[in-house]
Structures are given as C-alpha cells and as structure tokens.
Design goal:
This protein has 20 helices and 32 strands. The chain is of the alpha/beta class.
Length: 669
C-alpha cells in the first residue's frame, strides 16, 4: 500500500486532540493564567499562538515569568533580564543573578507531590538500581567534596566516559555544584574519538566505568580508559564506577586510577555546598558531530541551560512533579543533558543502558508499565524499527500511565504518527521535537494543549523567534521551504566554542549565513497552514538536482515505508556539471534489489513527492553510517562517493559501514 501524502485530506484533520479536561490540567494552562493575571486588561494571552507572539515581543517579561513559574532557586536575583535581544551573539541574560544548576535539580520544591525515588536505572537485564532523593543528595555531596579535595574548582573541567548510569548523573551534579564544567562521551566512542573531544580542554578528573552492556555482552572499556588517561597529562584522578564489573580488565595500567568508593570515602561528614555562580557561568561542554573535522567544543552556561530546559519540560512536554520520565539516550547525546533536568521538577528520572531490543523486543514498553512512566522519549528511528518489527504495544501492554511520547534525532515521518496512534495508544500526546547540541535544547517542539497533525511538529518554542527564510532573509509563507532561523537571542545560546577566544568560529558557524542577523540552524524546513513545521532535512545536505532544492527527508518518507526497506540515505553526486541524486537502501534479509523493487521505489517517490525527487541511481548497501547519536551521516556518504578525505571516523557509531560506499563502479560509469 502506498504511503499517504502529506497533502492528503487526512493531514488537514488532527490525529489527536486533547480533551478540555486534559488542557485544563496542563502546566501550560496554569502558566497562561499566571501571565494573564499580570497583564493589562487589553492584553490577551489565551492560547499557544498568542502566548508565543507575546513571548517574542516581550522577551524580558516572558523569561521572567518562566523563572517564577518554574521556581528557579537563586541566592541573588537579576538586576536586568535581557539587555539587547537583537544582539547575536552577545546578549546578556539575567545580569547580576547568582545560582547553581545542581542546586536547582536537588532542591525540594514539591515534597508532597514527588515520588520518593529520584533515579531508577535499567539495562538489558531489567531494573538493577535506584536512588532516593536523600541518597542522591548524599552521593553528590561526597563526590563534590572529593572533587574539591582533588583540586577541582570553578572553571576546571571534569570528563565522563560512561554508560547511562546513575554515577554519570551524580558526577555531573557534583561537578556543577563546585562550578566546574562537565563533559561526557559514551562507551560507543573509540579512543581517537574521545581524544578529539577531551584532548581539547585539559580535564582534571576522568570518571569512567569498568564496562558497558550491549546486546547481552559486557564490553570491557578499561583498555580504552587506560589509553585515554595516558594521553591526558592534566588528569589528577581516574575514578572507576563499579558498573561493568562483569567485564574483566587490568586496572593497574590506568594512571591515577581510584575506585569510586576510595575517591569519596573520606568525606562523609561534610556538607553539600553549592557555588553561587553568574547566570552565564559555564556548565557543559558538548560537541558538534565531528564528521567533517575535529568536533567543535560548544560551551553552555548554567542559567541558560536551566531555564531553557525547564521551559521546555514544563510548558511543552508537560512534565509535572511526581512524573516518571525516560529518554532513550546515551551520555554522548545532548538529550541526556536535557532529560536530566527533569530532576528540577521533582520528577523521577529513569535511565537505561544497552540495546532497546535485546532480551525482549518490548523492553521499552515493559519499562513503561513497570515504572509507570508518564513521558517516553525516544528517536524517530526507534519508532520506525518498532513498526518494522511488527510491535503492537497497545495489545501487549497496559500503558495506562503514559501521557506523552517525545521523538527526536531525525525527522518523524507521517507513517510513525499512524503507527503510534493505531498500535501504541490513541490518547497520547505524540510530540516530535527538534533542536540540537548547538543550543542544548529545541527550536520547534510540542504543545500539549493543541491538536497533533500527521507529520508535523506542533509549534515553535516559546520565547524563540523562529522563522523560515529564503536566501535574501525574507520570511516565507506556509508551504514554502527555506532555512530555519531564530532571529532573536535566547538564553541557551552557547557561551561560545572552547579554544575560540575571538569567537570567529562561533560567529561563522551560526551567524554569517543570512542576509540579516539571525541564528541559522542548518535545517531545511517549512511552516504549515496548521501553524506547525515540517523539517525536510539538513540544509547543508539539501539535494539540488537541476537547481531545485530537495530535502532528504522528503525521499526517506515513502522509501522507508516500504516493507522491503529498513532504512535509506540519499545524497547528491556532482555529475556532468549538475548534481544527481543517489539513493542507498538497506533491505530486509533475503531481499534483493531487483528491477521490480527498484521500480516500486521510484513509483512511490514519484507518487508521494514528484518526478524531480526520483534518484538517478538506487544501490543496496548492508548498512548506513550513523553518528554516535544515531543520526544518518549524509555528509560522510557524500564525501565518500566523491573520494574526499574523512577527517574523524571515530565520530561514527559504525565506521565499518564506510567500506560499502567506496569505489562503487556504478558511480563512475
């Protein structure tokens, strides 16, 4: 059966609409009432659309209300909310305030509403650990005291090479509490990939585990830890968490190695102290993908990260005190940083290490029922794979607690909306969200008070002046595709890049590609008649055959709907003075790319897109290169087929896939 078009009659009708009772109970409705009570009588802010308009027209008032509504704890209040929202970069937020990110995640805001458990930990074998709020505070207190004893102070760096386990959260919160910067990579990274990142900023402490779990196998990481530690002369300690003790390995060869317990044991009688820091004091170092060169070290501030996350989690994802929130992520993806902030809302944070399909294909859905999850976060790829595997969770699980499903990492196709509402749960808020490491948050995301339309992201983020521009900087009308921009400053703009003192690289990355001042995010996007957005792929990988710009996601939607195709990647190849589209497909076992299947793929693309979208060549490959965070690396494939050098193979989760794209005869004949 052919996939539905995004222009079909059904797409003009919502696939989900919240009930009046549900709307009334959202945080967003409470926030609207708070805002309305403070505005003049002639100022009406009664819907998401009017609220968004007010939030960008009055940014100081909006962000001040977010601060109050989310209960941000500060030892000193701001003297000015924003000095000049048109200055990008360089706008100053919440000047004069003093606060601490970790303190805001650990302060007891709603003691009667919160669950007793702060963190629950799962892996492929099931639930293995949990921490109460008191236990979490105690663990952070001990680790923070140990960091101070080890000489870590404000502005120093602590690195984590860890699976998604409680020790990663504890170490990060302790690092924040002393005013140092936290940066983490997951065990997916090889030594070179880690060194491309950690080697840039001289960490004092490296926190790691003995191993990680994947597909039922404990993977020893100690040999990589030893190699990393020997290459970072600034280290004074390598702290080993007990997780992964099933994996064998030689600890003696690791310089400065200390067990977690040995590191923290002398400090049981000390108090938990939170350094009071300026709003823009550095908190995190995150990384660009690094698929075209050395990863950029993106520095994010304490206050900007906190207020942006709380706005999104509270108003857009509707996370409430007492909720249980889970996002399938690793410590190497910014969604880990994002979801950890749910602790500030007195929600229980649920962690997972390993493959979501090992032991049982329904592991994620088992977790929902057993932990009574209210929010499930995952990737578009996982939802597509669950559909391909024939899962129907509504038939096998209760899912009564589940209120929201969040999806990001890549474009969520219309067919995944169909699958969620037919096979998962009819009364769930499915929110496709998109942003990135660059801003450690989102630009476009969900609205729990409004309808969900098939294939669309519901709204621009509150306080984010998001628009769609052409190359001249002219805003485009709904249905027209262009660059995703944000034409006004926002609190979680990076402080800059590490090792870029004059901000030349920072400015050239985001601010020098548009005719007018704006943050250019790099997505090819359109606004819809419903007020939402459809992302068509990255603008730096947009296809351009015959001068017509085509987003790669437009091709993936019909192709990956086919039963025979597991996934695909489309790139442009320079050809005879123009560009032609090459489509690579990964097929199910025992299926071959014969002329009949090729014709079927071309027909689906023609019917759902246009004749211009039809690739010049379709080739089958066993696997597609993906970044550590799971995104298709279209840039890598394009460089391969043009015989261009690859500068950072360790940025890929599966570098072995590269061999399938080299020296292909079909591309030179």
């Amino acid at each position: 059966m052919a996939p539905k078009s995004l222009n079909s009659e059904s797409d003009r009708q919502p696939v989900w609409h919240p009930s009046a009772e549900r709307i009334a109970n959202t945080n967003l409705t409470r926030f609207l009432k708070q805002v309305e009570s403070k505005l003049a009588e002639n100022s009406e802010v009664s819907s998401m659309a009017s609220l968004h308009r007010w939030s960008v027209e009055e940014p100081a008032a909006f962000w001040s209300e977010v601060w109050d509504f989310t209960g941000i704890h500060a030892s000193k209040q701001a003297t000015e909310i924003i000095d000049d929202p048109s200055r990008m970069p360089g706008a100053s937020w919440f000047s004069g305030s003093r606060l601490n990110y970790a303190e805001n995640l650990l302060v007891d805001r709603y003691p009667r509403a919160r669950r007793s458990t702060a963190i629950v930990s799962w892996n492929e074998n099931g639930r293995y650990n949990s921490l109460t709020w008191d236990e979490l505070r105690d663990e952070v207190k001990l680790f923070a005291a140990a960091l101070r004893q080890a000489g870590v102070s404000e502005g120093d760096r602590v690195a984590g090479f860890l699976p998604n386990i409680p020790e990663a959260v504890v170490a990060m919160l302790a690092t924040s509490s002393v005013g140092a910067l936290w940066s983490s990579c997951s065990p997916d990274f090889g030594v070179d990939g880690v060194m491309e990142r950690f080697g840039q900023f001289e960490p004092k402490i490296l926190v790691c585990a003995r191993g990680a779990l994947w597909n039922g196998v404990w993977i020893d990481t100690l040999s990589r830890v030893a190699s990393i530690a020997k290459q970072i002369p600034s280290l004074s300690a390598v702290v080993l968490a007990d997780y992964g003790s099933e994996a064998s390995g030689n600890v003696d060869c690791i310089p400065h190695a200390r067990t977690w317990n040995d590191f923290v044991s002398p400090f049981k009688e000390l108090d938990l102290v939170f350094a009071q820091l300026p709003f823009d004091h550095p908190l995190y170092i995150l990384y660009s993908s690094g698929t075209t060169g050395k990863p950029k070290c993106i520095v994010h501030g304490q206050g900007g990260t906190l207020i942006q996350h709380l706005k999104e989690l509270t108003l857009h994802a509707d996370v409430r005190a007492g909720d249980a929130v889970f996002y399938y992520t690793t410590c190497g993806w910014m969604m880990w940083n994002w979801v950890v902030s749910t602790l500030a809302l007195d929600a229980t944070l649920v962690l997972f290490d390993g493959s979501p399909f090992h032991a049982t294909e329904t592991r994620m859905w088992d977790l929902i029922d057993q932990e009574e999850l209210t929010v499930l976060g995952t990737s578009a790829k996982y939802l597509a794979m669950a559909e391909k595997r024939g899962l129907a969770p509504r038939q096998t699980h209760d899912l009564g607690s589940l209120r929201t499903i969040l999806s990001t990492g890549s474009v969520l196709p219309p067919e995944s909306f169909d699958w969620v509402y037919s096979k998962v749960k009819g009364d769930v808020h499915l929110a496709s969200i998109s942003g990135g490491t660059d801003l450690v948050s989102c630009l476009v995301l969900g609205d729990p008070s409004s309808p969900v339309y098939r294939g669309e992201i519901q709204t621009a983020g509150l306080g984010m002046r998001v628009d769609v521009w052409n190359s001249e900087g002219t805003p485009l009308s709904p249905g027209e595709k262009g660059d995703l921009v944000c034409s006004q400053a926002f609190p979680s703009m990076p402080n800059g890049f590490w090792g870029d003192p004059d901000q030349a690289k920072y400015r050239s990355t985001y601010f020098e590609h548009t005719a007018r001042p704006a943050w250019r995010h790099g997505d090819w996007i359109e606004r819809t008649e419903n007020g939402g957005f459809i992302i068509h792929g990255r603008s730096d990988t947009t296809l351009n055959p015959g001068g017509v710009r085509i987003g790669t996601a437009e091709i993936y939607r019909p192709v990956e709907r086919l039963e025979a195709v597991l996934e695909s990647v489309a790139v442009g190849q320079e050809w005879e003075g123009d560009e032609r589209v090459i489509l690579f497909v990964v097929l199910r076992d025992r299926i071959e790319l014969d002329s009949q299947l090729e014709q079927r793929i071309r027909s689906e693309i023609r019917e759902c897109c246009s004749p211009r979208h039809i690739p010049a060549l379709i080739l089958a490959v066993p696997a597609i290169p993906r970044t550590i965070s799971g995104k298709k690396s279209e840039i890598t494939v394009r460089r391969l087929i043009h015989d261009m050098p690859l500068e950072n193979v360790d940025a890929l989760a599966n570098p072995e896939a590269l061999t399938h794209f080299r020296n292909l005869p079909a591309l030179v004949n």
